[in-house]
Amino acid sequence: MNSNSRVFAGCAVLFAVISVGLLVAVIVLAVQLEQLKNQQSQPGATNGGADRKSQTDDWRKYPATPSVFDTLTETDITEIRDFLHSQPELNLVPISQADMASNYIYMMEPVLPNKTDVLRHLDNGEAVPERSARVSCFMGGENPPIIREFIVSPIPNIAQYKDSDNPAERRPIPWHTRPANPVEILAIEAAVVRPVMEQLFHILEETYGYWYHNCTDRCLVFNYVPRGLRDGDRQMFIWGFRSKIDGYYLWPVSLLLLVDVNGNDPTQYNLTRLYFENHSFVSTDELLANYGNIICIHTYPIPTASATYGSPELRGERKANWKKLPKQTEPEGRRFTVDGQKVKYLDWEFNFRLRAVTGLQVMDIRFKGERLAYEISMSDVAVYYSGNEPAGILANFVDAGWSIGTLHQPLMKGYDCPENAAYFNNTFFESGTGKPRTYVDALCLFEQNTGLPVRRHRSIDFFGADQSKYFYKFSMPGSVLILRGIPTVWNYDYIFDFVFHPNGVIEVKVASTGYIQTFTYPLGGNSRYGNFVNRDFGILANLHHHLFNVKVDLDIGGQQNRFETWDLQLENRTNPLAPEERWLQKRAAVNLRKTESEALIKYKFEEPKYYVMYNQQRNNTAGYARGYRIYANGFSKVILPEGWYSENGIPWARHQLTVTKYKDNEDTTASIYNQADPYNPVKNFEKFYGDNEGIVDQDLVAWVSLGLQHIPVMEDIPVTTTPGKQLSVVLAPLNYFDEDPSITSQDAIVDRP
């Protein structure tokens, strides 16, 4: 072969190699593009920093596998409403046509099937249990008026309804216990508030520079809070604020109305008490007759539109070299996936849902394939104030009365949650419109590097001369999955986090932020109930007690569980190294709690304990019963004596930990009716343990109460901050595993020289 032929042959071979290489590259690129396309269509896929709206839209379109834990859809809600409206014997009308003498739907929420049926479905492959919903109706057209709750089923294709008969609740549900609602508020406004405000126009104008009717940009607005002064009584205390200014919660006026709203006839509603400038009157006529006589006329400055007090806008000099916040990345995409409301993350699996009354619930929680808990959820929230002025005295709030779950509204992406979070909607029946309502992006889910190692060690050669040498060192960065919701309950925002750690630990965290509630205290000086945050306007921030109740339904190796405390006791013994001397030290004594009354825990620092739920029939390799420890960072004591008036509305707060035998009808400590009558509450938690059932080898539920005493200070203005206001319940393995389960995590590193 001549040289030209060899050159040609070489070129041909080279060309062939290049062609094959290009073909392979094209094939690889096509495969990668297809994989990327598939990843972006999956939940948990990252779009590499593309527009977040597109990412959200892809998430919404992902097909969901139906689950027994699914919440109601807009279609479900519409079907339930239309079905009940079609039952002539109920005589229901749309809320837009309702008055106080009408029958109408107030709220609805899905009812979980019996736990036994759910577990048969999940564990034995039996059919999905029938879905149903509970519907609360205000029956003002009945004689006497009453509240009725119905169970409608099945969903979809509803065929029947029946009265809800819950032995854990008071029946029948009294008319006076209903939550405040638009129908009633409009009736009170027309019958009482507007006429009273018109009579007081010149006083309001002179005192505050704000009034109620024809007020344009100087309007007073009112907060309506239902609660009588004793069982069976319905009063509405109506509290005035300046409006059209940032942080209107910080701009109250020294005016409070107490209105009798018993019955269903607004013409019978009347003003029973009026408080103005720290004076009490039985009528507007009495106030007008004494104005300027017994009242020292006090003219408050008028807030200006540019006032910074209460405004969240940035203050101070802007720094030219201010840099953006650090951000987390997911270099290979999300490590969690979601199908409908079911999440899978590393060794974790769980379902989540929003309940209209109480908010976030996490269901069927599994780690490494084993169920640890059937349900962990927020159960109730309350805040109790104190004060010299009537508004402070009466301001005791049981937040389920405002349906906490419906108050999870859209989150601010990149601020409330990281930019790479996945977001989910909140769909519920809206009482004010009688229609389904959906808030988009109301929950978020994200993985976060905590910045704190889960475990680490440097094994130093302490035996050698050179202690800079080491045998090995290892570390495992802390990374957790967080499910977050932030309801805004009037002035406060509560950040609820369900946190899943790589070592089998589950944490429920709550942090308080938002605006503090203030009161007008015109007397000046100082107060024993709080601190002034604006002396020019006589605005006082009163002390108050935040309280939270968490439901923990652990299923350790099944439903045959026990509860015991490991009590730390002081031992006085002989010192074996010096027999003539005594030695004091701690020792643990195991105390099995056999009945519900024995499992009522009031925390005492003098009696430190471990709180342990375990399965006596399931042991680890060392022979210890597999269990979980319940630990709380935020136990808090209610100072009010048990049984004292409104304290009866939150009996769950009397004990920091209560363990009861599981019952399907004892699903939560909360009720939408306890706000209006805390004296003889519709749902009384005392009944959960009042029968004192045995709790050995039973399906058990722990009710954990947390709290925070808050005496506001100037730094709570304009908005109170979360540091120092975080509480948590931690559920940690206790001899459940043979070793730390995160030892299998590939996030860790071991370095040997």
TrEMBL record:
The lineage of its organism: Eukaryota, Metazoa, Spiralia, Lophotrochozoa, Brachiopoda. Its cofactor is Cu cation. Contains 1 topaquinone per subunit. One of its GO terms (biological process) is amine metabolic process. The active site is at residues 399, 492. The modification 2',4',5'-topaquinone is found at residue 492. The keyword Metal-binding applies. Transmembrane segments: none annotated. Belongs to the copper/topaquinone oxidase family. Pfam families: Cu_amine_oxid, Cu_amine_oxidN2. The keyword Magnesium does not apply. One of its GO terms (molecular function) is copper ion binding. This is Amine oxidase. One of its GO terms (cellular component) is plasma membrane. Residues 327-743 form the Copper amine oxidase catalytic domain. It comes from the Eukaryota. Its EC number is 1.4.3.-. InterPro entries: Cu_Am_ox_TPQ-bd, Cu_amine_oxidase, Cu_amine_oxidase_C, Cu_amine_oxidase_C_sf, Cu_amine_oxidase_N-reg, Cu_amine_oxidase_N2. Residues 81-157 form the Copper amine oxidase N2-terminal domain. Residues 39-64 are annotated as: Disordered. Residues 50-61 have a biased composition (Basic and acidic residues).
